[in-house]
Design goal:
Elements: E1 3-7, H1 18-35, E2 41-42, E3 52-53, E4 57-58, E5 67-68, E6 72-77, E7 86-89, E8 99-102, H2 109-122, E9 128-131, H3 137-147
Antiparallel strand pairs: 1-8, 1-9, 2-3, 4-6, 5-6, 6-7
Helix pairs in contact: 1-2, 2-3
Length: 149
Amino acid sequence: MYTIYMSLPNNQVKKDTASNISRWKATCELIQLAWKKIPKKYKDDEDSPYDIEYHGVANGDGRGVPDITDRHICFNGKGKDSYETFYFGAFEKVEGLDSFCKTNRNGYTMAVMIAILCIQKFFNRDLNYSSDGGDRAAWAKAREIVSKL
């Protein structure tokens, strides 16, 4: 099982001002643009003997479309690629390392990584993240995708 963790120092919460809501919407648009750049097959780590297949993202149940609003983002892998729902409320407390998403290294793992990297920008880099297995090749690819947008 593969888990990605998130935390904010001192549970820093953004106020839901018009300016922050606008920034959140831009963050969600950036996430959706970046998802389009995820390769159909990628390696979790350079020495991995197999490719991970990306099938896209869906709502929390693994069907339909991701739930993206002016207050939160909620998604899972599509169909058989789903595992655990990723949820992030833009104006809600992140309770330390209790905030996590288990992806089981399914194809939507990179979609979760990209979402976190974009959300980190929304929080002016204050959002911390980590994952089982350290800094794997998939994180490097996710960073590359986000940096080019």
